[in-house]
Amino acid sequence: MNIQMRRITFSKKPLIMGVINITPDSFSDGGKFFSIDAALQQAKKLVDEGADILDIGGESTRPGSMSVDVSEEMRRVSSLLEVLVNENIPVSVDTSKPEIMQYAIAAGAAIINDVNALRAPGALETVAASDLVSVCMMHMQGTPSSMQDNPEYANIIDEVMVFLDDRIQAAMAHGITRDRIIIDPGFGFGKTLQHNFLLLRGLKQFSRLGVSVLAGISRKSMLGMITGNPVHQRIHESVAAAMLAAINGADIVRVHDVKATKDALAIYHAMQEVGVE
User: Fold this and answer.
1) Which candidate, 261, 216, 225, places its Cα nearest to that of 243?
2) Which residue from 114, 202, 110, 224 is spatially nearest to 153, judged by alpha carbons?
3) Active site (annotated) includes residue 220
4) In this predicted structure, what is the pLDDT of residue 6?
C-alpha cells in the first residue's frame, strides 16, 4: 500500500490507525477535540502511543447523523491536516466530499477514507487524478441518517464482498492501482449485531479481493450490546475486537485507544515470531 511517498509494508500487520474526530457530534468523542489545540494535543498523544496513521474527520457518520456543508467540513479539517503533514505524520482524511478530497490530496494526505466508497459524483476522478494517495472504500447499507432503521441481508458476507469488489473494479477502471486500494466492510454501518459479528468472524474472506483490509470496530455499539458498557468504557472490548480482526487478517485497525491496542498486538506479534520446535 502506498502512503504518500512512502511504501508501507505489512511485515507486522495490522497497522494502527488512530481516530481524531473534529466534530461536535461523533458517537465516541464528539466535541472533545473540536478545537485545533485539543485536536493537536490528541494527535501528539496518539502518535506517541504508537499510531502508524491518524484518521481525521470533520463530519460525523454515526447512526442518525446529518451531513455538514463543504465549507464547514473544510474549516474543521484544514488546520489540523496542514500541521500534521508538516510534521511528516501519515494522515487519512475521513470524507465523502470530492471538494474535501481534492484539498486533502493537495495538502499531502496519505489516504482518503470514504464511507461512501467514492460513489459521489466526481469522487473517483478526484482520487484517480493523484498517483500517490491511497483510498479506503467502505460498505454501508443506506446513509448515516437511516442506515440502522432496518438493515437486511440474505447473506451478509457475500453481499458486502460483491459491493466492495464492484467498487474495486470501478476504482481500477479509473486508473487507481490495486496497491492503493483499501476496503472496509463497514462494521455498524447498516448492520445488526448479528451482521457485525458474522463480518468479524468471516473477515479473512475479504483478503480474497486482493487489496488491504481495514477493520473499524473501536468503541462501537455492537460491543456495548455485549458488555453493557457505555461508549467511554469500552476499551477492553475494543482491544479484544482489534485482536480478533488482526487474527482474521485485518491489515489496518482503526482505533481510539492506541496504546492499549498496540500493547495487545505486541503480545500477538511475539507469539507469531516464536519458532516452532
Assistant:
1) 261
2) 202
3) yes
4) 47
CB 118 within 8 A of CB 135: yes
Whether pTM > 0.70 for this model: the answer is yes
pLDDT digits (tens, 9 = 90+) for 212-263: 999 999 999 999 999 999 999 999 999 999 999 999 999 999 999 999 999 9
Coil, strand or helix: which one is 197? helix
pLDDT at 28: 61
pLDDT score, position 24: 75
d(C-alpha 76, C-alpha 251), whole Å: 28
Q: In the CATH hierarchy, which fold is given to the domain comprising 2-272? A: TIM Barrel (3.20.20)
**Is the CB of residue 92 less than 8 Å from the CB of residue 110?**
yes
pLDDT in tens, 133-189: 999 999 998 777 666 777 889 999 999 999 999 999 999 999 999 999 999 999 999
- Residues 71-91, mean pLDDT to the nearest whole number: 93
**191 classed as catalytic:** no
DSSP β-bridge partners for residue 54? 18, 91
Q: Taking the mean position of all CA atoms in its chain, how far away is CA 189?
A: 12
| Cβ count near 5 (within 10 Å) | 8
Catalytic member of 62, 220, 234, 262:
220
Pairing of strands 181-184, 212-215: parallel
Residue written as cell 500541521?
83
The domain ranges of the chain are 2-272
Helix (H, G, I), strand (E, B) or coil at 143: coil
CA distance 267 to 40: 29
Residue 147 backbone phi and psi in degrees, to 5: -65, -25
The pLDDT value given to residue 25: 59
Which residues have C-beta within 8 Å of that of residue 226, sequence separation ≥ 6? Answer: 193, 237
